[in-house]
Amino acid sequence: MLQAIHSDRSGRVFVSADYGATALDGPVPAALDRAIPLPADATLVPLADRAAIGIDRRGEPRPLGPARWALAAILRRGHLRTHIPACDPAAGIPPLEPLPYAAVGGDERGDVVVAAVRVGPAGRGEAPGSDDLASRITARLRAEPSNRLLRQLARCARDHACPTAENVFLGRGEGALPIGAPANDHAGPSVALRRREERAPLDPTALAASTADVAAVANAHFAAGGTSVSFGHACEGDPLASVRIVADAVTLIRRPEGAEIIVRTNGSSTAALARAADAGIDRVCIALASAHGPTYERVHGPVGYRWTDVRSTFRDAASRKLAITVELLSLPGLTDRETEARALVALLGELPAGTVLAPIDLAADPYVLLASLPPEPVTAGIAALLARLRTDAAHVRIAA
After folding, report:
1. Residues of the chain with CATH 3.80.30.10
2. CB 6 within 8 A of CB 64
């Protein structure tokens, strides 16, 4: 049996050898019996004023005490959590910062393990040296001092370590093209729907990028060896809400063979996606926390559109033969419900072969979010859900 782990108020980590590790993927704490070694790039986060819960000698879940805080791991892309931490919150405590909390335990050697599975290449890849990145940012800004988008990306790279902003200056991988698009969903403070690699919330991007600036950044990225550019990131809303800028910029972007222009969106507008597709985008990546209409409405809080609009956008993207990525924002105890699984299989069944399903952890206070939804006592588990999708939606490629 894995051992319970907790933190004290100073952030020190302890193994509670007399208690077994617990975790949640439903309403009741259960023994954590399957985990992987904690990845080197993961971060351990104490859950303040939430007592850790362990399995006692009688096999019953039991709080370890108010001074023994539950502990969570925050994983990089490439891993998907299977359980959230089990905890006993004190009365009147504030919500947690919306992050992708994963349950942890201790193995027989006392090493930390995490409730997760590998779903793709881990981490961000080779991290740039800070001096190298800083020198490249300085050189680009000197060469293009009037490009406001480039200045914004420099702040994103330096102040927030945004990997897709860093890539713009390093000439590799996917480069971000934030355009200051407005938000059109209101998930509330306990859920961060557009979070990707960021550890902390970002300030909304302050600029309204010009078409010329966007195209200049994209063309330079491709010329330097980058493989894709994308609209729609954590620092802004839905680029389909500013589709004129997207479409006008795309017509000016010169991409080499095999490179992609991507729109990352919530799929709020079929007409806007059509305009972007006509301009020449290659892939649409639609993020959703649920394919079940009532759950989608509760979690996303859509403003000016509904789940039916998102379904229509998926269908239109398929009819236009756009490459499609479904970015599934996953939460144990929600995503692995039977109702959710059936709806997801039905959605994927409408999409063409070659569609990519990218499951990533939903950043949220999981306890607040799950408490706001109708209870469903039986869950299949995230690993079982992935196995089902590989069978029931075999035409879809599961990737990080």
Report:
1. 130-398
2. yes
